[in-house]
Amino acid sequence: MITRNRISRAAFWRGAAGVIAAVVVWEAFARSGYFSRALTPPVEAVLAILWQTLADGSMVQHALYTLGRVLLGIALACVIAIPLGMLMGRVRAVERFFLPVVSVLMPIPSLAWVPLFVLWFGIGNVATILVVIYAASFPMIFNVWTGVRAVDPLWLRAGTVMGADRRALFRKVLWPAALPFVITGLRLSFGRAWIAVVGGELLASPEWGLGKAIFDAKEFLNTEMMLAALIVIGGFGLMFERVVFQALENRTVARWGMVAAARR
Fold first, then answer.
1. pLDDT in tens, 150-190
2. Range name among 46-55, 156-165, 214-223 with the lowest pLDDT average
3. Alpha-carbon gap, residue 195 to 142, rounded angstroms
4. Is residue 262 included in any domain, yes or no?
5. Which of 131-145, 148-162, 199-213 has the lowest mean pLDDT?
6. Residues 20 and 108 in one domain
7. What is the pLDDT of residues 60-90, one digit of tens each?
């Protein structure tokens, strides 16, 4: 227990040192005079506007709207991508049909679809959430497909010999073996979803959202507000990695001995 606590404290301070180093570099750059203060505000000005917008509730509302779009988009993407990736990995005909389609659509940037989605569905939530679904689906599809194909056929044959039916094979063999790839796909989809949602909010013009806040701040050259919104986005990324993804990994595949547990 003592050793684990020491490792946790060491990992925390290593992460904190990275954050402090980034803050120091930014502060030095902001005070260098290379750009005007309006373009590169010092850290205290950014933190001041962040505190002000958190206190008046505007940043909280922007963040909650954006987070809601991200979570809804990822949930719907998982509903589409996980079954499709499983089928592609197990059924050759499904793989031959969908793999060319996925290979063609995946390189197309999600933001390139925003103007079309706005024309088809109008400005607001629908277009933005559809962009998130599009961006989050493909990393999940490819990772689930790869994970299913990577399952050792000996495990499946051993399960069949031991009397497992298809449902038991999926629950006891296929899903646990593919889960590390699913979690990796979820991590990648989460990152792609944030890129898509901010771009979608910039172009689809919903009333609330961090992308909308950044766009409005740009119109008034409010660099502090833009950087404050970026800090909030980065904070969500750190929170989900440490609280959600690592916890999910540690309680499943790391506990089963399939990957090394992350050291916090």
1. 877 777 777 777 766 677 777 777 778 888 888 899 999 99
2. 156-165
3. 19
4. no
5. 148-162
6. no
7. 999 999 999 999 999 999 999 999 999 998 8
8 with 121, same domain: the answer is no
Taking Cα atoms as reference points, which of 42, 109, 73, 60 lies closest to residue 210? 60
Whether 210 contacts 63, CB under 8 Å: yes
CA distance 107 to 131: 14
Shared-domain flag, residues 83 and 212: yes
Token pair 């005070």 is found at 31
Alpha-carbon dihedral of residues 46, 129, 64, 216, nearest 10 degrees? Answer: 40
The contacts of residue 106 (CB under 8 Å, 6+ apart) are: 138, 142
**Contact indicator for 180, 188 with CB cutoff of 8 Å:** no
Amino acid at 155: W
